[in-house]
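agent: user wants the full assembly modeled, not chains individually. Plan: 1) parse entity lines 2) check alphabet per entity 3) run joint structure prediction 4) return tokens. Steps 1-2 passed, three entities, 999 residues total. Proceeding.
--- entities ---
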Amino acid sequence: MSTTEQTAPLLEVRGLSIEAKGPDGPLVLTEGTDLTIRPGQTLGLVGESGSGKSMTGLAMLGVLPPSVRVRAGQVLLGGTDLIALPEKELRAVRGGRIGMVFQEPRRSLDPSFTVGDQVAETIRAHREVSRKQARNLAVELLDRVRIPDPGTRAGQYPHQFSGGMCQRVMLAVALAGEPEVLIADEPTTALDVTVQAAMLRLIKDLQEELNLGVLLITHDMGVVAEVCDDVAVMYAGQVAEVGPVRDVLSAPRHPYSAALRDATPDECRRGELLQAIPGQIPPPSAWPSGCRFHPRCSLAVDACREAAPDVLQLGRTRVRCARATENLTENSANNSTNNLTENSTNDSTENSTNNSAKNEGAGHGAR
Amino acid sequence: MALVELDRITKAFGRGRRRVQALRGISLTIARGETLALVGESGSGKSTLGRIALRLVEADEGTVRILDRPVRELSAKELRSARRDMQMIFQDPFGSLDPRMVIGELVAEPMTVHGIGADHDERLARAVELLERVGLDASAMERFPYEFSGGQLQRVAIARALATDPKFLVCDEPVAALDVSVRAQVLNLLTEVQRERGLACLFITHDLSLVRAVADRVAVIHHGAIVECGPAEEVYEHPRHPYTQALLSAVPGRDPDRRSLLARAAEQPAPQTRESTGCTFANRCPLVMERCWTDVPTPHVDAAASHEVEVACHHLDVHRQQALQ
Amino acid sequence: MTADTVTEPAPPAVSRTPPPPLRRRLARLRHSRVVRRLLTDRPALVALVLLALISLVAVFHSLLEPHDPLRQELSHINAGPGSEHLLGTDYLGRDVLSRLIEGTAPTLWTAVLGTLIGMIGIPLGLLGGYLRGVVDGVLGQVSDGLLSIPPLLFAFGIIGFMGRSSLNTALAVGIVLIPRFYRVAQTAARSVAEELYMEAARASGCGPGRLLVRHVVPNALGPLLVQTSQAIGVVVSVQAGLSVLGLGTPPPTPTWGGMLSDAFDNNADQIFPMLPSAVLIVVLILCFFTLGDSIRDAYGRAERGKK
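--- prediction returned ---
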């Protein structure tokens, strides 16, 4: 299914490091991020709060907050480095060749203009068309994002739209500049599940129609499993693992990817304990030395505490874990859950059956 | 005997043309030691129902009985002392803990209010025990909420809720604001303390995937009406109401080799614009019949089934009658 | 507590019982954070030092005055600065420096007293903002009514009715301030009342008294401190204004406002005689305003948990 190797990259992030101004000197937010987005493909960027996933998205668009800046690295869109581009030229790219959708659609829309005007405004900013043409194109776009009765809806204000409909309008705005790449930062997080499913369906359909390269920033491994071709898992400012979704999710090489995958509780029954990752996500000011996941990792050995692991290429995935080659991840991920459950549960029999069932599933995936 | 009984609760917000019927006659019971998950989407009225159960919001009609006390008829003073038995955990741990109080005072406060413990020192000592029970260190006592992460603060909120040794606990989306990797810790903790203390628990959530892990029974709420209610496992495995089915089919799976979310999403009918005075789900229901638009469906237990699942759906009623004949 | 009743310190690993003074330590911690931030803020520090100096001058005025502030030297009127009179003399030949020093205490005193009277509005506002309903309705109407009268006019009325004195000046300014304090306290209390932690506290069984004292007041304290410190500044300026209009503290007691007014009345063509008192008034006002600003910042940062 994955054609990752064949198509040429559309947007490439190389060695991107971002830092913020802090009271005690600059604070590194992300480090050495490499990402590749290909036409017609969806790259999932998964991580939790503080992982730097949203900052990476903002940096790609050149819209970082005032106290944050790119320290090093490139964002290459068809050979041009967006980081080096002057603001004026970047503005044409933003909303033009790169469209964007954010988490809170209602806040991204101006409450005092009609929805049609806001879409038309973006069209006119990127295309040489008359006001009237822009207006018609806007209605067309609203139809394209499947807003029912777009002619009437175009004349309405954002407050007359539900959250899901607002997100569709945002998508129409993002498409107004005829983009090649769509960056969607948690586009469905604020939406209800049924609305989320419809929204993801819409993004997928538009992607197929327009051959869009999509960067989907999310915290939800389920969404990644359902819609992404490739996935990059970020933890504490670094990409822990990146590769085709099927490889990463069926046979995660990094313990964090495995833990994140298993944090979805839908397989768990009443009476069993969920598989929990111990500890807290460290803030950027308190990232541990060595491997950044080691304090929460059940596989950590002394080497993990001492030295930062190198990025290893294993098949089609790249992993930042010193023990990835040992092919321990699956077994030991299960070991770790065993340890955890032994500490905290009295239903260890049920858990071990559950784990062995997982073992089989993972084994299938690897083959 | 149910510890919590809600009977025909109704509630409307606003007046005149802006009047919104948030709850349309909801009845629920929760037994001692039982967790009932109340599942619904935003605007379904699930949080309002939780607040009505604790009388943080006044209902328009209906009765609430907790430990055989008619909660809606209590005087302000009686209500305050009754609160000892019923506590709440909120979605946003940063907002629900007073930023000007240290953790120790926050956990001790409910004990002070209800006169638990001989003196303040004893209460603080108990607060330390509670914090240790929820997995926090005694050193947390002297620190302020801003020094903690969301997951840790939710533990504090749990400790605070447990301080009065309540019998009934309302958890309003307790993990929705937390990071994925800490959700499981907090859910496990909640399940453990609920078991340990035999709490009756109303677990309000929008996330159906949590239900099986945390709840014994589940009630699915749609626009202020319960559409399906029964044992969690049964509802999860064999959803009967079309809305429950739609909700479940919208939960993403986690196996990239068996993708079906987008296909399922495409099958859902586009909502109709027609107003329904009957079933609240009529305009989105794939099985809608003429009767659904005008008659409010009443919940029925399928007498033939081995499970006590109540479903409010005309379509299923018709099937049931056909099966009987 | 005597030494022999002190309990043995528990081993740190199993410190189940917190040490007794924990409660007091907690309370101290709560305020010290704001104070600490205030002390690391340079403008606030400058303002505090200046205010401390001015207060010292007010207390030890008799030791610092080079001349009798009331003695008139008619042969030496309107003298410029010199070795004998550092800041010169006024239109009655009184030593300006001595009068400034003598005037410090009454100036500060009226300002503080006026603000204290104005602060009656704070508890009323907290109550109104927290209880809402009838209480807020009635108090709000009264305060709006008072606010609609121009403050100076109001002060004229009171002083006209009660006569000129330091106390009446403070009273006039204080009463003008009451509805303003009411508004600030009411708004602060109302926004706190809508916070989720208030609902959480209610859910755990807190009664109205506790909610008000333990939750509303501490959380509304920031804006109130800001308002208080700026109010003192306003009182200083209004008082000076009243003096210029001849409604301030009556002579012979010197106040800075009164001196400015005298200089203005008797020597309007020259700038210098007005300068010392004018500068001091401006400095005093600025001190209170800066302090107010810094308190707001300190509270804001404390809330967000920044260093």
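agent: reporting back. Residues 120 and 325 of chain B are 69 Å apart (CA to CA). The interface with chain C takes residues 54, 56, 80-81, 83-84, 87-88, 90, 92, 95-102, 104-105, 109-110, 113-114, 120-121, 124-125, 128-129, 138, 141-142, 144, 146-147, 157, 160-161, 163-164 of chain B (CB under 8 Å).
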